[in-house]
Amino acid sequence: METISIIDSKDYVDQKVKIGVWLTNKRSSGKIAFLQLRDGTAYFQGVVVKSNVSEETFKLAKELKQETSMYVVGTIHEDTRSHFGYEIEIEDIEVVGKSENYPITPKEHGTDFLMDHRHLWLRSKRQFAVMKIRNEVIRATYEFFNKEGFIKLDAPILTGSAPEGTTELFHTEYFDKDAYLSQSGQLYEEAGAMAYGKVFSFGPTFRAEKSKTRRHLIEFWMIEPEMAFMHQEESLEIQERYIAYLVQNVLDHCDYELGILGRDRDVLKRYTELPYPRISYDEAIDLLKESGEFPDVKWGEDFGSPEETYLAEHFNKPVFVMNYPKAIKPFYMKPHPTRDDVVICADLLAPEGYGEIIGGSERSTDPEYLEEQIVKAGLNKDDYEWYLDLRRYGSVPHSGFGLGLERCITWLTGEDHIREAIPFPRLLNRIYP
Ligand code: 4AD
Ligand code: MG
């Protein structure tokens, strides 16, 4: 008899197997007990028929408590009524770890209660599905950039720089010096691009943002590719192929999980069709004005969530909004060749209300211009000498972007809130558990 995982049930129909499981729920009558089981690979049902098992086994089955861990031995059958498609007819149960008064019961709980029990809540079905999709997105990311000839170059977490502005920095001490938790690995990836051509980083980033929204985390993970000898147009092509690749791989490898989440596959399928529309910031402003829904919208201001939602819904697809006003973008972006009020950049806005999932730009190659911008941004020039060196020694046109992993996962899974897209979310008022 083999010990298997639930997910492999299809290969063991009518065979006797052993599986290590936890009990998620239970229903029983005088003659039969239905045990809802999970093992981290899938969820399915175990059936215990009184007339087929020993008296002790049936009694044990009826007394099992939620989240008890155990080995079950039995025969796999098809179960066409369930989403998973298989069940196990149990002959024997061996309890491994008992569980009394598991706090998360099948009844409804409030969000705060569930967040306080995140370490247990992760066992639940929707959370399982989201984490599996997160894993697939990470796997497909490495695969995509590997196929495209990028190397992964890790950026530091402790830094002395503030690429995305000084207001959202997490300050810490570095012996007798000041340091910050990384807001972005970008500046280091620029050094990487000059050394190795095409690089990407994937790591945690930190923003002390006082925003309490469905889209903001204090700690989130970012994928940041940076490409030498590349202008913005070519970077946009990589970005859309990358997103389409992620969507396609989730469709191909996470069908069971999409089913658990009730995510419409046809909607996702549409997002694999390229190219994505491209509009300028100016055109976006015109669209918002014409809609009549944003009477106060003014050129020069950043978009909020309602504006981003409107724009992406208008196209019913992810949309690139290009060339934002210089005044609302970071110091490193390349200025427009014929206009001094906008920069060569783009944000990719996801449809269905999920907003900006990618921010990217072509980078300025002009050390004098950059020096000026660094000072203007209130940054200490000495901290950026190394960055300016990249322009002094064999500078080339280069572009890059950052995908917010959790924003992307929230969108792909159709979850309401970004806290669902990361195992242990760090939010404005939460660092437990
Ligand atoms: O637009 P951002 O700030 O761009 C950068 O950090 C660039 N240095 C990236 C680059 O060009 N290498 O952030 C990039 C993405 C956003 O589009 C968004 O998806 C995500 O990171 N993001 C957040 N996700 C969750 N919580 C937050 N507080 C986020 N802030 C940004
Ligand atoms: Mg941005």
TrEMBL record:
Coiled coil: none annotated. It comes from the Bacteria. Residues 131-433 form the Aminoacyl-transfer RNA synthetases class-II family profile domain. Keywords: Aminoacyl-tRNA synthetase, ATP-binding, Cytoplasm, Ligase, Nucleotide-binding, Protein biosynthesis. InterPro entries: Aa-tRNA-synt_II, aa-tRNA-synth_II, aa-tRNA-synth_II/BPL/LPL, Asn-tRNA-ligase, Asp/Asn-tRNA-synth_IIb, NA-bd_OB-fold, NA-bd_OB_tRNA. It is found in: Cytoplasm. Belongs to the class-II aminoacyl-tRNA synthetase family. PANTHER family: ASPARAGINE--TRNA LIGASE, MITOCHONDRIAL-RELATED, ASPARTYL/LYSYL-TRNA SYNTHETASE. Homodimer. This is Asparagine--tRNA ligase. It comes from Ligilactobacillus ruminis. The lineage of its organism: Bacteria, Bacillati, Bacillota, Bacilli, Lactobacillales. The gene is asnS.
